[in-house]
Amino acid sequence: KGNDCSIGDGHVTISCETKSATISSLIKINWSRPEKIGSIYDFIAIYEKSSLNDKPFIYKYANNENEKSPNSGVIELQLPSVVGNYQIRYIDAFTRETIAVAENIIEVHLPCPKNCSGHGNCQIDTCICDREWTAREDCSAKVGVTELSVTPTGMSVPTNKKITVTYKRPEGS
How far apart are CA 110 and CA 113, in angstroms? Predict the structure, then answer.
């Protein structure tokens, strides 16, 4: 069935803008059904993409007692803490049949290490570092070379003079 499925005299719809998110994130799901269709016990749930309707990760009832319309609303559900591909379904409480499926499959992934240290963008658990920062896993080191200097210069060996070696590394190295 699609994301806008016929049932009785109308359509039940669910939608979610999220296509990719980190584990345990909250997502918003919009839902609606025609008047006198469904029940307050119907529910919207997150399922592993290929699982049966008897194993939801989490669900909420499709009712809106506090809203003007008991036939539409927005709910928040927390994504599983397991990496994978998930589907959102509107389920008939009595038959356990899928009435509607959100169009998007949600890819749940791990967060980026140290949130890319503030020097990059997270793209599905991998940091894409800003230009001046290394491709180190967490973008924590600045690109550059270590500067090295030795004083005094021009000495002959052996000597009993003190030699000082100084160095400066790029930030984060």
Answer: 9
The residue count for the chain: 173
CA angle 121, 26, 89 (to 5 degrees): 115
pLDDT in tens, 126-159: 999 998 888 678 998 888 766 777 777 766 666 6
Query: By the 8 A CB rule, do 57 and 86 touch?
Result: yes
pTM: 0.70
Phi, psi of 115 (to 5 degrees): 50, 35
DSSP string, 52-121: -TT--SEEEES--TTSS-TTEEEEEEEPPSS-EEEEEEEE-TTT--EEEE-SPPEEEEPPPGGGGGGSEE
